[in-house]
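Subject: sequence -> structure tokens, single chain

Hey, anyone have a minute? Need the predicted structure for the following. Not urgent.
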Amino acid sequence: MLRFIGILLITVGSQALAAPAPDVDTIIARHIAARGGADKIRAIKSLMFEHGKYAEGTSYSDGNATMMLMRPYYKLVGDPRRKNDIMEGYDGSAWEYYAEPGFVIRTTGAPSKAARHFADVDGPLLDYKAKGYAADLIGTEVIAGRPAYDVRITMPDGYQTDNFIDEQSYAVIASQQTAKVHAFGNEVKSRTQYSDFRPVAGVLFPFKSSEVAIASGKELGSMQWGSITANADVPVSWFSPPVFDHSPTQTLIEQLYGQREDPSAVMWTYRIFRRAHPGMDTSDAAEIAGYQMLKMEQPASAIALLEQNLKDYPNQADAAFGLGRAYATTGRKAEARTMFERTLTIDPKNKRAPDALKDLDAPKPEPK
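Reply:
Had a minute. Here:
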């Protein structure tokens, strides 16, 4: 009879024997063990991701994408061993380098968050408490047909990322976050799925990832790494912006951008430069600096600079478009429309202005 009752409890009373879900620290500990263990992860001093095939919209890299991480907090997207059009890095503060026309900026806001949040060899889960992070078990979810624990990490600046840890393998098979996709876009909730796990120095890494916007299902980007190398001899200097001899206009771009919080200082520098170099074309420099100011959420300086740029170059389509973009970013739609239409009057074949006019008429997405 006792044996029968036991069988009945197993077959009918499953709730009576259901194992409680592990707590968040147990899940994280199992994940770290499944990757290879804390000691092996901590033994990795640097990581070099190379030969990456990357796609984002119409942009792609056919096997030459490179990223590097190094303790304690260094990150680099790009490769200083070859010519890169753009490089991004973090050496204690975030920076961006543009080879054409040649300038370096230190970033804040959304671009800085994108650089600093994952400038970490360990990833966000190992030693999360020591980093000042909080971890919470949100629940479970099925990812690509596999049940996974949803472990949410909250960083000290409030940024949150959900890590979906497979209930069987304890690998992180997906992550989810809300962030801006590009400089002037709305914040988008996206999910990145990871696959093609391989051991590197005894630690499992995903070699493939694909990011999808949750609301639309549209793929935002994908990456397939060709190789990941641990403990390569990487110079610390690689993680800082490249040093190069600046032309006067390259210097002007960086000076204007560096004073972005003070519109009066921006305009002072712009005016004295033009007086000192009366024959020099400053239109591109002003448009580039104004664009970067908008990215850093300093519209007052950007608009002041771009309005003056259009006065100085009234027949340049790019000058009109740049000012229109600044107006659109700050919600001044009627003035933006006027500038985009002016762009097309100057240059009927301009490709950016028609898209910008469509964006003005597009319905604003509901806040998430």
